[in-house]
Amino acid sequence: MSRAARSTISCSAAAFLVTGGLAAAGLGVLATQPATAASTWPAHVFAPYVDTGLSNTTLTTVAADYGTRYFTLAFVDGSGCQWSLPNQSGWQSQISALQAEGGDVSISFGGYTVDTDGTDLGATCSSPGAMAAQVESVVTTLGVTHLDFDIESNEQTNSADYTLTAQALAQVRSWASANGSQLTISYTLPVLPSGLTQDGLNVLDAAAANGFTPNVVNIMTMDYGSSGTEMGSAANQALDAAAGQVASVFGISTSAAYAMLGNTPMIGQNDTPGEIFTLADASSVESYAAQQGIALLSFWSEGRDNGGCPGTTTAESTCSGISQGNGAFTQAFQSFTSGGGGGGPTPPPTPTPSPTTGSCAAPWNNATAYVSGDQVSYNGANWTANQWNYDEVPGGPAGAWNSDGPC
């Protein structure tokens, strides 16, 4: 992403300003059986990136506060053809805690720094089989069923690297299938408002030629390298352009291409001064993503979703650079997640607002509430994320809720 901001996946397609992959530490242990999903992922899911090189995000806390139960943990380094993740044991504990509550994570490999340094698995492993063994070890060690490969910077222009990666992932998918499991694997690629660059298309062409089709093509709608870009409109334009390109590469309809797309902007200040993704942009992007029926909505990154450094003109790792409330972007995007299976939100009994009249009662009209931990997040008829929150009345009857929202 981005240099300062992401210590992970930053994507400047135009000037390749992006920076972000972080060197990791920790060893994976080879194993033979794929994971069983802790839950079934929703059909359309919001899964923000989390920078594993930092310690300012607790997954279960975000889930309790905002209802967000799915995350993308970044990044895995592959130095010496041996996978590693920063603070592996700590994140492994967090993954287990989240899965116990019905959530789950995707593990992301690569990112700008790793791809620039040539320490991604596709560059350091001598064969597709050697890389496949490392990827399988991540799956079995961390107990996950979703993987992401962030391919940018030098990896995106190294045909030997991204070709070996595609070949390895075809083997990984076969391994999982042979063991009665399925893996969801995404490619994350830089874009311009005009869509994927030729380098990105080359990556997808190599995947198709080597028998590997990613489940999701996630575009990084950020760091275009031009001050003053309206970032919400640019993200939506890039999504439309990428849909046509993905349809052409894989020989599918445009509607099917939208259904395999992801969209990942960088919240707040991007790496280029004047490129600022606002909360208004978030509303526009979430609404358009839902309208087009894409698979994944994300952002870089959860640890930046706060107003701790308003007015900065370059991206920071631990704050968005704009004035905002804590978790404001997470709340704006959370409504994108739809019901899918065991991991989706569980509908509670129909709540009764208190009071039963006035502005606090009105938002309940013709609405459905969903439980998140011990709270109900009420999104309203237009599904504006977390517009209203209601806490269960201690000791009260099922379905009785008091307002702690803005009314």
Helix and strand sequence: EEHEHEHHHEHHEEHEHHEEEHEHEEEE
The termini sit apart by: 39 Å
* Oligomeric state of the chains in view: single chain
Radius of gyration: 21 Å
Characterise this structure.
The chain has helices spanning 59-66, 88-100, 112-117, 121-124, 128-142, 153-156, 159-178, 198-209, 231-250, 254-259, 279-292, 328-334; strands at residues 45-46, 49-51, 70-76, 104-110, 146-150, 184-192, 195-196, 216-221, 261-265, 268-269, 276-277, 296-297, 370-372, 375-378, 388-392, 401-403. It is of the alpha/beta class. It folds into two domains: 45-334, Glycosidases (TIM Barrel); 346-407, no CATH class. The strands form three sheets. Strands 1, 2, 3, 4, 5, 6, 7, 8, 9 and 12 form a ten-stranded mixed sheet that branches. Strands 13-14-15-16 form a four-stranded antiparallel sheet. Strands 10-11 form a two-stranded antiparallel sheet. β2 (49-51), α1 (59-66) and β3 (70-76) form a beta-alpha-beta unit. α8 packs parallel to α9 and α9 packs parallel to α11. The longest helix has 20 residues, at 159-178.
